[in-house]
Write a structure and sequence with these properties.
The chain is of the alpha+beta class. It is 21% helix and 26% strand. Helix 1 (30-36) packs antiparallel against helix 4 (179-197). 51% of the residues are buried.
Length: 208
């Protein structure tokens, strides 16, 4: 299964603050990060395995994976990094979800532009086009396009309280990845992150 770093993605979106209402913003534990990452139950039609899900404490060893920026900028005051990959065999699509959990909302807010401008946003490619995924989270950006082989792909970045979230999707099949589908994927991850910060068991799914 391809890793997030190996996906050739394209596409950008708007990043304005959103209204989080009465939602809480608390630091996530390692187990909450694990529970936030969508699994097969949350993603009907998508398949993964425990080997394709990882959650680690962000120390010197994992900073380069979570924050592949100059000097690992954006990892300040971060706690945990998590990633999971699922595949949809019907349309040859693959999605990787990623999370960085910070110790405060301020830390996540300060890291947002650093990581989007310094790494994640650049993965979209020179012909990337922005698209909107609002209303999702407190801040959000998205890019959609295709790589040099004509394969559709997208990357989104969202902040939900104390966590930064990424959804990276690509497909070798026609129609496997489209903007509406990417919005749905980003929505599921954002909702699960908010449920965890509210102290609830993450339960959001593509079906809900």
């Amino acid at each position: 299964m391809a890793s997030a770093a190996a996906l050739l993605l394209a596409g950008c979106g708007g990043g304005a603050e959103g209204d989080s209402g009465n939602s809480k913003a608390v630091a996530l534990t390692k187990e909450q990060v694990r529970e936030t990452l969508p699994d097969g139950e949350a993603m009907p039609g998508w398949y993964g395995s425990s080997a394709q899900l990882t959650v680690v404490e962000i120390g010197k060893l994992y900073r380069s994976a979570a924050c592949p920026t100059k000097g690992n900028a954006g990892c300040e005051n971060s706690r945990f990094y998590g990633a999971s990959t699922l595949q949809n065999y019907d349309n040859a699509a693959i999605v990787t979800f990623q999370i960085i959990a910070y110790d405060s909302e301020q830390a996540a807010r300060e890291a947002y532009d650093v990581l989007w401008n310094g790494y994640y946003g650049r993965k979209a490619g020179p012909k990337a086009k922005p698209f909107t995924i609002s209303p999702i989270g407190d801040e959000r950006d998205a890019r959609f396009g295709s790589n040099r082989f004509g394969e559709a792909g997208a990357v989104t970045q969202t902040r939900v309280g104390t966590a930064l979230l990424w959804t990276e999707a690509a497909s070798t099949g026609k129609g496997g990845v489209d903007k509406d589908g990417v919005r749905d994927l980003a929505r599921v991850l954002a909702k699960r992150a908010q449920q965890a910060q509210n102290g609830d068991a993450p339960s959001a799914s593509l079906a809900s």
